[in-house]
Write a structure and sequence with these properties.
Belongs to the FAD-dependent oxidoreductase family. It contains 9 helices and 22 strands. It is an alpha/beta fold. The radius of gyration is 21 Å and the shape is globular.
Length: 386
């Protein structure tokens, strides 16, 4: 019997697991699947900017147990291993797993799917932080800091930072309950890939919520002094100053979860070299999907579109046919929530109305679809079998 191994149960992993099980494994006596992950729960990152605000959303809106879905499959066709990949031998088709009980196990594979995603820096719960329990603990600690803080600082001008500044500004800034600062290293929030009109509207909406914007600035030092965190700030012109906060929320990038992969398979930033067929470069039996690969930028929409592509073409692959190449979507798409009632975004070169962003994303932050994504029945843009 041939073994399909899937590493990861995130945005890309869960749709792949269910659809490969139903369309390949359960329809053939020749295959079984082994899923490896350090967590018993699916984590929904899109809602985290709102969930960190105390009292806005309960934990179960971002953490969904995997067991109800996995128990559908018989033991002779499916196995879940609670642990993390610690080594990969692509020549021997072996993955070494560090198990949750401290032991290790070597798992052979015929086809490997690496969907291990990425981790936020400073153990922030924007992404899964190891186990489900540890992630929830980190979330609760952050909520307590925000609740008791007089001054809150969000750092990092990407999508997560911008939306988090908006949520905290909506809750605390506009009514003067707390001082909310937003620090980023460019002239405007969001990356230069976003239209300037969208970035400027974002700036305007944050200012309306009385978020104190600190552009063109980086944080060069973080020092803990009792309950306070003292930040050393450096402006683009070289001037420095300090800012004291009781709740510091860095959103300054992610690290790919690829430490188990041989270095010759990685680029200089630690991402797996990924081909247009979504394989690891030079390895026809290893697929890479989502944040672990370097074909596209780390975004939820990328993880979904890559998973959707593989779900379509894998039946041909397992039947011995040719694999159609994945086409990168070059049309920029962004939906930015700014508090609970505003938003902005773009589709290609068209700026989207605030109401549309609120209706599609801002009302629920995707939590209306997250349960079905967690059990692999859909992504944000595609629905599979029920």
């Amino acid at each position: 019997m041939k073994t399909i191994v899937v590493l990861g149960v995130g945005l890309a992993g869960t749709p792949l697991i269910r659809q490969i099980m139903r369309n390949i494994v359960l329809k053939s006596k020749d295959y079984k699947m082994i899923v490896v992950a350090p967590t018993t729960h699916f984590h929904w990152p899109l809602a985290m900017p709102r969930v960190v605000v105390p009292g806005q959303m309960p934990d179960d809106k971002v953490m969904y147990p995997l067991e109800p879905t996995f128990k559908e499959y018989s033991a002779d066709k499916f196995e879940f291993i609670l642990g993390s990949a610690s080594g990969l031998d692509p020549e021997g088709n072996l993955v070494t797993i560090a198990l949750s009980d401290g032991t290790s196990r070597t798992v052979p594979y015929n086809t490997l799917f690496i969907a291990t995603g990425s981790s936020a820096k400073d153990e922030m719960p924007w992404k899964l932080v190891g186990t489900a329990d540890h992630t929830v603990d980190q979330l609760h600690q952050l909520q307590k800091k925000i609740e008791s803080a007089k001054t809150i600082v969000v750092a990092g001008g990407g999508l997560t930072g911008t939306e988090t500044a908006g949520e905290i500004g909506y809750e605390y800034g506009k009514n003067g309950k707390k001082d909310v600062y937003f620090i980023y290293n460019s002239d405007l929030p969001l990356s230069s890939a976003v239209m300037s009109s969208v970035r400027k509207q974002t700036e305007t909406e944050l200012e309306r919520m009385k978020v104190k914007l600190i552009p063109n600035t980086t944080i060069t030092k973080v020092a803990i002094q009792g309950r306070d965190t003292v930040l050393e700030l450096r402006n683009r012109d070289g001037t420095t100053k300090t800012l004291t906060t009781q709740a510091y929320l860095p959103t300054t990038g992610v690290t790919p979860n690829t430490s188990f992969v041989p270095k010759h398979m990685l680029d200089s930033k630690g991402y797996i070299n990924q081909t247009s067929s979504l394989r690891a470069d030079g390895h026809k039996d290893i697929f890479v999907v989502g944040d672990a690969g370097n074909l596209e930028n780390n975004r939820a929409i990328t993880a979904f579109s890559q998973a959707e592509h593989l779900i379509k073409v894998l039946p041909s692959y397992f039947a011995g046919g040719e694999l159609m190449e994945y086409k990168i979507n070059t049309k920029p798409m962004y939906g930015i929530t700014l508090g609970q009632s505003k938003g902005t975004g773009q589709m290609g070169t068209f700026k989207l109305f605030s109401f549309l962003i609120w209706f599609v994303k801002g009302r629920f932050m995707g939590t209306d679809k997250a349960p079905s994504i967690a059990n692999g029945k859909m992504t944000m843009s595609a629905t599979f079998e029920k």
